[in-house]
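Q: I'm writing up a methods section and want to include an example of the input and output format. Could you take the sequence below and give the corresponding predicted structure tokens, formatted cleanly so I can copy it straight into the document?
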Amino acid sequence: MSPQKLSFLENDLFLLLADINVDTAAKWGKMNAQQMIEHLVDFFNVSVEKIIFPVVTPEEHLPKFKEFLLSDKQFRENTKAPSSVLGEDPLPLRCADIETAKQRLKNAVQDFIAYFNEQPDRITNHPAFGPLNYDEWIQLHYKHVTHHLRQFGIVC
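A: Here is the clean output for your methods example:
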């Protein structure tokens, strides 16, 4: 496990999100800042099976996806989830405001950590990357979160 990446998800992420607001513009993509935060909540919920998607990547491609996941390579700008999973357009806002969305994200990260602390050998499915263990989920969440922080100019 990467303690630095877990610490980033648990702590640094929220320091970086403190200044993001509804007027923070994206450098690419269709999501606004609140939609991005709610999107992150959803994928923490996928990792703990509160939201379940089928694996859509053909089994023979999963090793290449896993190789990318475990590498230091970042997601490219405008990388999209499979349209069969999320569709072409961002989901409508579900939280009353961006601060509520940030709190839900904080809760989702805490739930993620608790879930795997209680079940350290648990494997759950990501729709594109397939079955992942806790360490792999930490790596994926770190890549995913930093991708969206770059999207909004919060990190380089």
